[in-house]
Amino acid sequence: MNIGKNNKLIHSPTIYFAISSHGYGHIGMTAPVIRALYQNNPNIRIVIKCLAEKQFLMDKFGVEFIHIKQSPDVGMIMTNALSVDVEKTYREYQCFHRSWSENLENERQLLRKIKPDLIFSNIPYQILMAAKELDIPCLTMCSLNWLDLFQYYFSDIEGSVDIYQQIQASYQCASTFIQPAPSMKMNIPIPVTQVSSLANIGGNKKHLIKNKIGINDKKLVLVSMGGVSYDLGYNHWRHDPNIHWIINYTGRIDRDDMTKVLDIESLMSYKDLLKSCDALVTKPGYGHFSDAACNDVPILYVARDDWPEEYYLVKWLKQNARCLEVQSDKLETGNITGELEILWAQKKKIIPPANGANEVVALINDFFQ
Are residues 45 and 89 in the same domain? Predict the structure, then answer.
């Protein structure tokens, strides 16, 4: 396939995206890449293998695609938004790798049927081995990888080395590992390509939110722990007359100072909602950290502690955004007004570049030259 003027593909390749369903971070990180890819090459055929619902993916990606609703990897099983269920996760890895040959053949059969020109993984690994065996070029992209996380959590378990080696051999099948800013330090056995942040840039539509809620001078604070459910006991939070909370929560709320994200979704996209808020309360995670920093939204975060990516995310955030850590006991009572005031008093930072999607599209197009 050839590249024409303006870095666009002359023909219409099929690109197969395998996306982990561990929370929403992998989906959110891939979204700007798919949008930029489709904008540059509207005739492209996109296939997405991901356990998330198709409508949710369409809302994020904004393009037409073929959906294979299956989980392409194990990822990490969470007890809540902050903690990994280590024992259950390891059992899932044992089960997955015990059926390695059968699962690998299933992947090969699927690829023979779809006939993709390129595999793009964020960050499933078995698909990379299947692609290599069928001479299909492949690359992978993420701020973390399952090889290093497996080593972090399970290296002391007897018998884990065999699983580790299969994960390692699979990642070795990719031609490069794309690391968007910010990313953790990786011990990955393939060349690494660093790109700018993969942020979803929104538009400020604060007036629409305030009109719907019926408020004027209150600050809007978005509270979201990402794609894994986490009940912060919202009904018991302290009331602040100057703040209206937008909460990513599906349970019952009996508060007139709180509105659910679900009730705003009919007005705007999530990226517009984030851009419209005066602060974000969240946990360390690629999507919220990069999106908030690149949209110039101050961030109040609660530590995850036992998450190996956290150190690198927080280090980058402190360099590129107004941010402050809050203790979990304060967050669980809503006693965070003081921290928010300190956050809002911080000096603004230079907004980091968010051109990573175009940089990744250029790398993809290189495969077809």
Answer: yes
**CA–CA separation, 318 and 235 (whole Å):** 31
Same domain, residue pair 131 and 273: no
- Reading the block at residue 317, the tokens are 């955030």
Looking at the structure, tell me whether residues 91 and 47 fall in a common domain. yes
pLDDT one-digit tens code per residue, 82-121: 899 999 999 999 999 999 999 999 999 999 999 999 999 9
- Rounded to a whole number of angstroms, the distance between the first and last alpha carbons of the chain is 6
Query: Is the torsion defined by CA of 294, 296, 297, 301 positive or negative?
Result: positive
Would residue 251 count as lying in a domain? Answer: yes
Cα separation of 341 and 37, whole Å?
A: 40
* Range(s) of the domain holding residue 81: 5-198+355-366
The pLDDT tens digits for 151-210 are: 999 999 999 999 999 999 999 999 999 999 999 999 998 999 999 999 999 999 999 999
Tell me the HSE value of 223 on the side-chain side, using a 13 A CA sphere: 26
Residues 30 and 178 reside in one and the same domain: yes
How many domains are contained in the chain? 2
Quick one: CA dihedral 346, 222, 19, 198, positive or negative?
negative
Q: Say what the pTM is.
A: 0.93
The rounded distance, in Å, linking the Cα atoms of 347 and 279 is: 14
Q: Which residue has the tokens 């530590």?
A: 303
Judge whether 158 lies within some domain: yes
